[in-house]
Amino acid sequence: MNINRITPKVTYCGVNDRTKPLFENLWELPNGVTYNSYFVQGDKYSAIIDASDSGHATGFIKHISDLLGDTAPDYLVINHIEPDHSGAIPMLKSKYPDIKIVGNAKTTDMLRGFYGIEDNIIQITDGETIDLGNCHLKFLLTPMVHWPETMVTYFEEDKVLFSGDAFGCFGALNGAVIDEQMDTTLYFQEAYRYYACIVAKYGQFVQKMFEKVSSLPIDYICSTHGPVWHTQRQDIGNLYGKMAKWDGEKGVVIAYGSMYGNTTEMAEALASKLADGGVKNIRLYDVSYTPQSRILADIMRFKGLVLTSPTYNAEIFPPVESLLTAILERGVKNRIIGLGGSFSWGSQAARKMAAKLAEKPVTLLSPTPQLKQANQAMVEAEVSQLASDMISALEN
Ligand code: FEO
To answer: How far is ligand 1, taken at its centre, from the CA of residue 363, in Å?
Structure first.
């Protein structure tokens, strides 16, 4: 058995990265990440679908040459040219100078801009097909999932969708490639974090992509990150569908900033009241400590959110402001949001957070406890009211 074989004509040839500390130099990678690539062999021609990051070009090309021996691949299909999937192309092209690169007009432009490559390019349009010999690859443009040039490739005979970043997740692979050969719990958790950090801003385009591929019979989803989805393809599809609509589970994320522990105490009191009211999924995060990717993942997952910030230099505490900006950039909607503040002599943070959230498609709860110095007793009633309003809103 070849553990990398997906169908008789499709073989996995991607690489694992367990050493990069930050994806996009922003998002932590405690479980690593994959740069997935696939080799498709038709009766006449062969194609590589998606390449790899430049730091792993050697390993990626070794996987190709192990498969092909002395022969050369005929095509490289670029579904997505972000450098985590294209950095290896110059090295691939120097080993296989006659390889034809398949992409759309936007891909061509970026291929020139990133790598100065202008020759042996086949520019396709939406819906076009190439035949590798009883093996038809159909290209469907799916812009903004997650860059403007993104497209998916559908292998018609084997019902395989090469989906680019869509349906991807963080997490390196540990031996097996296809979902049914592994425990996928970690990858589903990492799908929230990956989507929240990388794709969330483009949810409306994810929905358009769904519409475009919904009529295709699909047995395998081969994304650029994480496992190949086969027996759990419906589950990952449902999860992406939920996230694209900001459809949240019952639960509350309390993300707080705290300089001297007083705001922490208020956040803990709120969590206790929520728990007392029957909320089982509560996540408390100190935004100065927990990596933003983890907080964003749970904000993507749960319907309730409370942001609590000290006033700092008459502004929102910087790490809370950074989180709020990230949420707004991602087009937050369908969330029930509570706010809280703390201050020593002039309260500004809660008001400024409320102003940023005004007119957004969220439910903003009105009780806004604002803790003065360390006087918890003064805000106790409002904390209770906020908990109770949150519980009622979660039920509706
Ligand atoms: Fe995995 Fe948008 O690149």
So the answer is: 32
b/e burial code for range 203-214 (CB count within 10 A of at least 16 → b): bebbeebbebbe
**Other C-beta atoms lying within 10 Å of the C-beta of residue 166:** 29
CA 190, distance to chain mean position in Å, is: 8
**Ligand 1 atom nearest to 198, measured from its CA:** 2
Return the ligand 1 atom nearest residue 168 CA.
1
- 117 vs 100: CA distance, rounded Å: 11
CA-165 nearest atom, ligand 1: 1
Cβ pair 142, 166 in contact under 8 A:
yes
Please state, for a pLDDT cut of 70, what percent of the chain lies above it: 100
pTM of this structure: 0.96
C-alpha separations of 127 from 43, 124, 182 in Å:
22, 8, 34
Ligand 1 centre distance from Cα of residue 145 (Å)? 9
Ligand 1 geometric centre to CA of 75 (Å): 21
Rounded-to-integer distance, Cα 169 and Cα 187, Å: 6
Q: Is the CB of 82 under 6 A from ligand 1?
A: yes
The strand pair at 302-312 and 315-316 is best described as antiparallel
Verify whether ligand 1 is closer than 6 Å to residue 224 (CB atom): yes
User: Residue 279 has which token pair?
Assistant: 């909320």
- Ligand 1 atom closest to the Cα of residue 225 is 1
Give tens-digit pLDDT for 45-77.
Answer: 999 999 999 999 999 999 999 999 999 999 999
CA distance linking residue 305 with residue 169, whole number of Å: 23
Cβ of 85 closer than 6 Å to ligand 1, yes or no, is yes
